[in-house]
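On clarity, I found the account of how folds are encoded harder to follow than it need be. What matters is that the chain and its backbone geometry are given together, residue for residue. I therefore recommend that a typical entry be quoted early in the introduction. An entry of this sort, consisting of the sequence and the corresponding backbone structure tokens, reads as follows:
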Amino acid sequence: MPKPLLVLNPQIASRTPKVLTTNQWTMTIDNVTYYNIVQVSGIKRAVGEQSRADGASGQVFRLTDHKIVYGDLSIVKMVDMNEPNDLRFSDLVTACHQNSTKYDGSIKKYNFQTEAAVMTVLFEGLLFREESLPQLNTENSAIFEVTYTVGVDYYEVTY
């Protein structure tokens, strides 16, 4: 049974994507969209290779081993633990760390107040591997940005 979400400020709970910044990322997992993602990096894939030498000429040929490895993504998210959306996101990360839960979903990039996504990354098997909190001290009054390192089994980019 999921724990009830506290709503301390009703205006925060009723935020829509249009209220947020114009250049933004959103992440959708299990039909729930998470906002306030300010940076996504590490979208890459690589394939291994094997080398074979030609016995007659001595020339070395490089061939793929057909094993595609998708890089770890780094996702930076502004977090406000008074917002129900961020509490739900925190529950996803906790479930992943405690139960090895993996997720399917998408990450979308929006530009210039457009309603349609400029770029979409569809992913399968997203695993939250690391959660890194910002430096916590009394002199730091910057926004609270948490960095998540995630691994994916597969992704596909559409424009």
Q: What stands out?
A: The chain is about 15% helix and 50% strand. The helical segments are 10-13, 84-99. The chain has one domain: 10-46+67-158.
